[in-house]
Amino acid sequence: MSTSLNTVRTIDAQPFAFPFALASTALVIIDMQRDFVEPGGFGASLGNDVGLLQAIVPTAQAMLHAWREAGGWVVHTREGHLPDLSDCPPAKRLRGAPSLRIGDPGPMGRILIRGEPGHAIIPELAPIDGELVIDKPGKGAFYGTPLREALQVRDITHLLFMGVTTEVCVQTTMREANDRGYDCLLIEDGTESYFPGFKAAAMEMIRAQGAIVGWTAPSAAVLAALNAPAEPMPHGVAA
Ligand code: TIU
User: Fold this and answer.
1) How far apart are CA 19 and CA 183, in angstroms?
2) Quick check: pTM over 0.90?
3) Per-residue model confidence as pLDDT tens digits over 155-177
4) Among 79, 99, 135, which is best to mutate for testing ligand 1, by the most ligand atoms less than 8 A from CB?
5) For the packed helices 57-69 and 219-227, what is the interaxial angle rounded to 10 degrees?
6) pLDDT for position 229
7) Is the CB of 45 inside a 6 Å radius of any atom of ligand 1?
């Protein structure tokens, strides 16, 4: 595998090829927290089958390891609220009739509260030194967070996404990023929804109309791009 960060690689993606350089691309892993993928957390409190989400963990883990090995930078996000709920709009906490509301005590601590066991990223995908962890109060990772500034400091222009759930926090964040000028690609088998039909629809929405929100590709296509012999930048940037 080439270790050059500035050379252009191309992912065989839909609706068309996605070129990127590792130096200006981040892998963004959305909300792979116990609260969404384990029984007794926020996702389960909403009545969902969390087992559906657990199925992507090995794929996401393999992708994360390959990305790190290639020298790529990683951003992890966590959805959650301050213990006093001052950053949780009542409209979010009071909506519907969940079995447990945000802030209520559950088997993994208080539901969707920062610092509680359920708020943690699952061990298989735990962040390591040098990676950024963004705590977000909303579904999108740009709202109420320093993500934009952190990406600008590193001259990041391209984002690859994995995580949960496809049509809620992943798609919301992709749309926020797309409006801010980032080229975004969703790794198809690195994301999952509690509703398979919603996942399929989100994929189609994202890549429709000539990549109106962004691109999608299977993890195998991303791995192939990482392993392919790197081409020099066309305008002579040193590899
Ligand atoms: N992370 C994320 O997607 N938060 C959600 O609330 N997702 C649901 O699908 N409920």
Assistant:
1) 10
2) yes
3) 999 999 999 999 999 999 999 99
4) 79
5) 20
6) 76
7) no
